[in-house]
Amino acid sequence: MMPRWLRTLLSTRTGLFGVAVVALIVLTALVSLLWTPFDPMISDVRGRWAAPSWPHLLGTDGTGRDILSLLMAGARTTVFVAVGSAVVATVVGIALAALGALTARWLRETVAVLVDILIAFPVLLIAMMISAVWGGSLWVVVFAVGIGFGVSMARVTRPELRRVQQSDFVVAGRAAGLSTGQNLLRHLLPNIAPVFIVQLSWSMAVAVLAEAGLSYLGFGATLTEASWGTLLADLQRYIGVHPLTVVWPGLAITVTVLGLNLLGDALREATDPTLSRDADRLHEPVVIA
What we know:
Blueprint: H1 4-11, H2 13-34, H3 67-101, H4 105-118, H5 123-134, H6 138-165, H7 168-175, H8 180-217, H9 228-235, H10 243-271, H11 273-282
Helix pairs in contact: 1-10, 2-3, 2-10, 3-4, 3-6, 3-8, 4-6, 5-6, 6-8, 7-8, 8-9, 8-10, 9-10
Membrane topology: Multi-pass membrane protein
Subcellular location: Cell membrane
Family: Belongs to the binding-protein-dependent transport system permease family.
């Protein structure tokens, strides 16, 4: 039996589009681990700048590499950065939100000030600063974006935790002997999940953009790692001569970010019971006296 939230998610166009895009990217990344039409790292100078045709369905770049193979291999990088950043952001966000909502007053205020300070630093700037010290790599992007958006999620979810903490079922849980951590896992986190899901999907979308931007600037993926941002940087110099080649990596980034954003909005509508009640009220018959 399909869960209700999943039926609601798939019944909307935005949710269906988001699920389809994310599933396609993940499937492409998994397939690229086992097979790509050509080796994405091998150049063929005699076949450079080939137009889209068989066997190069999307053409080749200036060194003769197959663009479709590069996009498929770049999907692995995109999935790795998006999932890795989401994991880091979840850990950081929940930890800071819990410390800022469920602890003593002096610690709550200290965490709130710390979050306000950290949120003032742009994520890309943090990643570039770390890259300048430790060198550019995908791990730098994952931790920089994860920490940056973990702070943002903490700022948004902290008031929600404070609100839910005053609910009767949380008070009853404390009276029943549940510890703060047990109450957090059983009652608080499930009730702030809709807000957290939207923030998490947004962080994954921006992680894709951040990875592409940092790789474009040379602070992200290395030369031995396929990346949509690196491919875009290589091809944009020849946009006046071969404009079609630039379209493919740019389109991949755009569609992926759009899919993640729409999926987050659809998940919020599907999992937030208050939105469901509001939607039901819109369809209730109204009697006008």
